[in-house]
């Protein structure tokens, strides 16, 4: 583990002023996914029954250790960028903070209910956009009256326009990303987790959603941002965490971490 | 790092978290709070169920007319197979109503179970995106099936009304359906959890439900069958404990004339017992894994 690198060079950024209030504490978090790899075949009823009796997993189930021994503390007012290569566990870690993906060991403590804004937000593709707006808001715990009140604002922000009464399966990926982002950001949040939400939209939507994130960040205590665009991270964050193959490689001021990450990325080439 | 140092650090972290009022992000809520949460999301359950029905028939040209057609066609097929070809109708008054009543009641429970076993796995991405009590999903599936059951029962009432005329005892179908719905909610929750962690359950379920189908006295009258076999008297009391038999029997008592001869002993108390056991057990069983549904 690259413990030395993590702890030593960045005391200034991670140790806050004495009155700082922690909002997210991750303590030695391990996250393990179970995935069904390859084509396992359905098997017969008899073999399925035997497997259940012996409490064996399917032979083709593989475990993926997505986040390994990760610890950090986030404070009120922090905007933390999560950087790292594809598949390094950034989105997984966000989901764990949101409480959507329970860690296999270790613990994550949060103040209030964290909210995840992401393009992976799944809606019902057979249904029209407006039904998805209502369903998504109900699932987030909003009341029907509240939804009625916010509905025009959500649709307006998504910029979907007249396509709102078409099924979501007919939307382009950019359009559905806009709608999902609009739904998820309809609520106010204590802890805001943003997962690559800005990547798929067009330039106009990107500007609008970055502004929305800034607004939300002013209301929210803490923001986490996953992005492959280091410029966005440098622009919006004061702190960065670098994940490499599930291991927390570096945690510190945004400039230092991004520089170190850049150095390694270019050094490898 | 030694384990002692590690556990000391863990305790320290937990203490800091508590001092600032932070809570574990994926902890299981306590049971009462969970039920309150569920009640708060009743609008979501209802809307989700309606959306699912809509999506189910959106592709078909006849649309939701299929909700009416499916039970009608089913009834016709069963009548042809068991009433006409196999001739199990002997000695039963108004056999079509007898058979179709049993079949509809059975299908309600069977579909709740099989659909419930997929409730979590087909919505995994939704579960990994939004926060809501997971039990809303299996509950929405029961709402779907209940809705279908209302339509099926409507068809049956028309059938019985035409052949036997109206009767006051029909009102007993309301408590009968209520009890069966309680039972189904519990079973759906149980199979939703089972289906999530033992994915093979969905392969096995068709065999389980088919066995159950033949054992529950849907095509034949259990007392008649036992009399023909010359079985000892206690056998019928054991067979009557089968929850499906009980729900079918109370529905038949409500709808059919001259059912008393085929009725099972203690059907009402048994139906009440299973409803309570299943409902309470199902909620507790499902809730105990609430923090693990996103994983895997």
From TrEMBL, chain A:
Coiled-coil zones: none
Keywords: ATP-binding, Nucleotide-binding, Transport
Entry superkingdom: Bacteria
Alphabetical list of InterPro entries matching this protein: AAA+_ATPase (IPR003593), ABC_transporter-like_ATP-bd (IPR003439), ABC_transporter-like_CS (IPR017871), ABC_transpr_TagH-like (IPR015860), Bact_Polysacc_Export_ATP-bd (IPR050683), P-loop_NTPase (IPR027417)
Stored CDD domains: ABC_KpsT_Wzt
GO cellular component: membrane
Residue ranges annotated for the ABC transporter domain, each copy included: 47-269
Alphabetical list of PROSITE patterns matching this protein: ABC_TRANSPORTER_1, ABC_TRANSPORTER_2
GO molecular function: ABC-type transporter activity; ATP binding; ATP hydrolysis activity
Pfam families: ABC_tran
UniProt family annotation: Belongs to the ABC transporter superfamily.
Protein's UniProt name: Teichoic acid transport system ATP-binding protein
Native source organism of the sequence: Kribbella caucasensis
Automatic annotation (TrEMBL), chain B:
Any matching Pfam family: ABC2_membrane
Main location: membrane
Single annotated GO MF: ABC-type transporter activity
The name this protein goes by in its record: Transport permease protein
GO cellular component: ATP-binding cassette (ABC) transporter complex
Residues in ABC transmembrane type-2 domain copies: 62-289
Compartments where located: Cell inner membrane; Cell membrane
One biological process term in Gene Ontology: lipopolysaccharide transport
Family per similarity comment: Belongs to the ABC-2 integral membrane protein family.
Residue spans crossing the bilayer: 65-86, 92-109, 139-162, 168-192, 267-287
Topology with respect to the bilayer: Multi-pass membrane protein
PROSITE patterns: ABC_TM2
Record key words, sorted: Antibiotic resistance, Cell inner membrane, Cell membrane, Membrane, Transmembrane, Transmembrane helix, Transport
